[in-house]
Sequence to fold (539 residues):
Amino acid sequence: MPYFIIIFILSCVRGLLGVEIDSVWMNEETICNDSNIVQICYVIRDGPTNIVVSLSEDDGRSWDVPLNTLFDADGDIGMNVGSGTHCFYWLMSADYPGREGRNFLVRVQARTAFIDTFSFLDTTRYVINGNDGYVDYANGYFVLTTPSTNRNGRILSVDSVYTDTLYVSFDFRMWAAGGARDPLGYTGADGISFILSRYPDPPLALGGAVGILYTGGIGVELDNWYNGSPCDINSNHIGISIDSVCGTGLPTSLFQSPLPFELIDNNWHHVEISIEGQHWRVFVDGTNYIDIVLSTAYYTPFWAYVGFAASTGASYCWQVIDNFRVYSPYLMTVESERTAYAPLDSRNPLPRLFCPDTALYVGENLSLHFNVSDSFYYPGYGGQVHFSCCGFDTTFLVRDTLFSLRLPNIECESSVVVLRVADSFCNTGSSTCHFPIRRKLVLISSRVEPDTLICLPNGHVSPNPVQVRAIVTNIGTYPADSVRVTLRFGPCFSLPAGSPVATILNLQPARSDTIIFNLFVNEACEGRTECISIETEGF
Fold:
């Protein structure tokens, strides 16, 4: 599987001499703020240097963890990072959600850039062509053309770079213009191009082609000769051109911008080129003249040999470059690096609450348990439980994976228990149970045993009052928390005192209890038949 080195470059700086990454450390916050913020710190000695930071979750076998969401990192990553302690932050939950591990590895590297000040010529770095093209050792710059007719010079790197992420800077100077004049009246020609060539040594592109034709690639031109419309806009412009013929032997420009100064002014000017995918930006002396996203019809990143070319024709001038810098992950070399391990976690824990599989009954004591799949959750962390049941709500904390809940005296078909847990890095997860709560089905039987009434002389009966015994039995399988016993009778009887309703508490299955009622007999009812009944209701 391919991997990518993430590189962050903010500005330009000289090469490294004896720079050391002294120490590196990394840690993730444990604050509950719905994000996973990781702090990365390191110490530089003998800076400044160019800093590259990368992250691995497989013990350094690959370094492809994305580091896109960094903050508070100005001056801590990229170019020109000074000595001392540097810390910045990475929003792991944005770049790398749903991951956890105990051995994430951060790597901080101090790297040298591809830099040449042309105080001498390193022939192992370049291929040089043309009737000019040499180092002026006395002045410490590279000459592309001398002020003569029909001169040319080109310098290309031996090593290629991939142009998806490329930062280039250089200085140029043009002077001593002479020869023919262009249609706008200017003399001096033809300009300097920074070129990205698909070939290590393509044919020379002379005159107005400014080295871009025949490369199969693309270039940034500093054009000081007007070849007429539509190929050029004036005699002093900057542009991006491709290896495609415009007019008579000229490269086709994708974009051109006029410059407010004369290119041939005998002054040094500084150019910075930033390429990030299709996005190109070009600065001259700190001013952004080109900021464009190129169409894939004309450009996509490729492996390129980098360098410069310049030409003269009937018009001419000195054209030289200096302080050439290329910042690319493919050309930089590592001077110093250190790594550090740390546990990181952006994954929410996965709790599982084991739910009852049958209906529950009012007033019961419900015991529940759960487990949690997570590398950074421990049973002692417990969780938070929220229980809701048809208008009844309660929330409480649990300290273990086993807890109990007393069900309210409410029948409810949609009772809910929600468990929420958090791991060491305050990532949260939840699990839910749904179940009905019903009243128990209590089966009660009863029978009535009244006293036998005996008729006496003069219309009296005995006994009076008469006793009525209600024998109540729980014939179900559940205990009856309470049984309400109600005595029913007609006008031939009356209750001397008390209530015709009695209550039996906690009547267990297969157990019986007896309730006795006393009733007065109305002697005027002699000879009549009267009924007495018992009604029972269990809960």
